[in-house]
Amino acid sequence: MVVTVGTLLADDNASLDNLFSDTELDGAPFSAWAAAGSNAEISSIREIDIISIEPIVSFNPITSEYDTTSFVSAIPNDDIDDSDVFNDLIDFLNSRKLNETDHVRIHIPAGVYNFSDQIVMHSNISLKGAGSNLTELRFLIRADSTGTTMSEADCKKDAIFVNGSGTQPAQRIYNVGIEDLKIVRIREGLSAREVKAMVGDYDYVDDIQAYWGNNIAIRRATNCWVTGVESENTFRNHVTLEFAEHITVSGVYFHHANNYGPNGYGYGVGIWDSGNNLVENSIFVHLRHGVTIVDGSWFNVIGYNYFRDQHSYAELPISTIVLPFPNEIEQKWSDIAIHEVPPRKNRNKA
Question: What is the DSSP string of 233-251?
Fold first, then answer.
């Protein structure tokens, strides 16, 4: 669905379609909409191949000396947990500040990689696969290796976790990219209802109040991007933006969710308290809403996307379930949902 309200001209003025000439769009913020999405400036890139990590020379701030550190590399298609390989490398790059002088691109060659825990990203680092049909990251998050089933904490974890410490510029995560790969979220030993009950509603995890259980979560961040990604069967939403600005989601294929009931489940992209973000040229299939914009969100642009097979249902409380579920019936909602927000901030463009 694309709604055109006008055409941006070179001088940031607008040629407004006649249909909207007598509306509030006469004063629409076209220049802000034109600037939506990532404006990351990357002057140099250092690329590291995750299946062949060469020893890294870095300055050790503790010893004030240079160290050469070796890493275990990931091996695709071996059914071995790769969580530590990715997180140890990313933590090292951040602790030694190697992501301050160069943007570090972690290349993930073709193959399947398995994760029992989330990937925690830091600024100026990106994950780049060989293509969404070639590089697959499979998340069966069960961080406690002694556990036989996923715990509540496991279900609440976001598969790829981008989170700043606050909303001030110096506290934000920036320049994080997720590119050209496929993400699959797996539940094992739990029903869809049990997963939803564990993920819960808007909640606190690690003293941060937010929506949890997403395939990608970008919180308190700026100038990040998700491009060329396929995401399958999220526990909550495929991408959640919270207190995020200038994020680009482009050329993605997001489909199917673990749950399609109310309270923030089964979305392609969920935008909360976030502004100047761009969702474009993407495909959303079998989701409650392809895109949802809620709370104090502003100047977001949603354009040139394809939505198919919208799916949602009404739920009975677990205590009243009797098979078959007579009140758990499919409902038809919108492909894009803009929930009520403060009037002065209801400035999103779809």
Answer: EESSEEEEEES-EEEEEES
